[in-house]
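Q: Could you fold this chain for me?
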Amino acid sequence: MSYANPDALVSTEWLATRLADPVVALLDGTWYLPGQGDPRADYEKAHIPSAAFFDIDAIADRATDLPHMLPDAETFARLMGALGVGNDSHVVVYDRQGVVSAARVWWEFRFFGHARVSVLDGGLPKWQAEGRPVESGVVTPKAKPYRARPNPGLVRSLDQVRANLASRREQVLDARTAGRFRGTEPEPRPGCRSGHIPGSLNLPYAKLFDRARKTMADDAGLAAAFRSAGIDLSRPVVTSCGSGITASVLALGLHLIGHRDFAVYDGSWSEWGTRADTPVES
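A: Sure. Below is the predicted structure, expressed as structure tokens.
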């Protein structure tokens, strides 16, 4: 693939030859919507050898009711050190759906200043389809010191997205399904209104995948998907979704094709859609 930033992805072949490399910190970043299963239990049943579990719901701001919001830098650093991640580690993250929640973990590391982080293209499904090994149990790596250096430019808050309603300086791109975006499908979280942020565009995250290869689309396919959604790739983009998970898939796609001015609305629709003081379109 001729991506502008190819290091954001690694192949199953690449990983298979580096499972014992002490520089590689392998993380299972699987996450499910409420009611879809228990990602930690699934990890303990079967994971790629040497992978530790990155709990998206636990490695988060626990002082808010919003799901898996970014933690503070000190908390992230402490928890990453406990997972055996050092500042010199090449973090590789995968999930059980292909490339979904792994992209969220990728974005979190980027936000905290860790540039050497990659997503396993195709994730665990591709790994297992190729007959590669898995193991059960829990991996507890040797702890390492870790320092987080947040980059606030990679995240947007409610107030920033609200201010953008008037300025329209940034394009807002929603990764949810077309039905949820248009308000014709119910939201999975109780209390969420239907619809979308006024003026936002829609690109369901699954459109960034090459379904035949079960991987991310190539650079031309990614660029075409963004343009088909109405995105001007010369302008800033803020990605959103239900809770900041699949918005990160869009962020990964933008990064792969070399788009430099993007951010994730961390609260996403779990925040915007549950408030009485935020306008909604459908």
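A (continued): The domain at 153-272 is CATH 3.40.250.10 (Oxidized Rhodanese; domain 1).
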